[in-house]
Write a structure and sequence with these properties.
The chain is an alpha+beta fold. It is built from 2 helices and 6 strands. The relative contact order is 0.19. It comes from Nonomuraea diastatica.
C-alpha cells in the first residue's frame, strides 16, 4: 500500500469508511470491542458480527467472527514495506451450510479472492488520493 503503516491501519480500522473500499460492505463499531459489518444490498446479504480480541495499532487486529453466516477468526497485520506498507489479511472461517457449503467452496473461492483483490485495490487508491 502506498502509505505508512499508521495510515493504513487507521483507515482499515475506521469501520464506517469500509463502504468506501470494501465490496458492498458497511461496518460500524457497536461497543468497545465489537464490530458489525453488513455485506450485500438489503434484504439480500448477511450481517457479520465480530469481537476484537487483540488490538495493537498500527500493526495488528485480531477478531472472532460470531455471526450466523460468518464464524471463525480473522487477523489483519500491517507491516512497513518498500516505503509503504504490506497488509496481511487472513481469515480462518467455518463455512455456512455444513457439508453443502464445503462442497460449494471450490466454486466460490475464485469469486471471493477476486472481490478481496478488488477491495484492496480500492483501498490502495483511496490511500493514494488522501495523502
Amino acid at each position: 500500500m502506498p502509505a505508512p503503516p499508521e495510515r493504513v491501519f487507521s483507515l482499515i480500522t475506521d469501520w464506517p469508511r469500509h463502504r468506501e473500499w470494501m465490496f458492498m460492505t458497511t461496518a460500524r463499531q457497536v461497543g468497545e470491542h465489537a464490530v458489525e459489518a453488513y455485506t450485500g444490498v438489503r434484504p439480500f446479504g448477511f450481517l457479520d458480527t465480530m469481537t476484537i480480541t487483540r488490538w495493537e495499532p498500527p500493526r495488528l487486529v485480531l477478531m472472532n467472527h460470531t455471526g450466523r453466516v460468518v464464524r471463525g477468526r480473522g487477523a489483519i497485520r500491517v507491516r512497513p514495506h518498500d516505503g509503504g506498507s504490506r497488509i496481511v489479511w487472513a481469515e480462518e472461517l467455518r463455512l455456512p451450510f455444513g457439508p453443502l457449503g464445503r462442497a460449494l467452496w471450490p466454486l466460490g473461492r475464485p469469486l471471493v479472492r477476486a472481490l478481496a483483490r478488488h477491495s484492496l485495490r480500492k483501498l490502495g487508491a483511496l490511500l493514494h488520493r488522501t495523502r
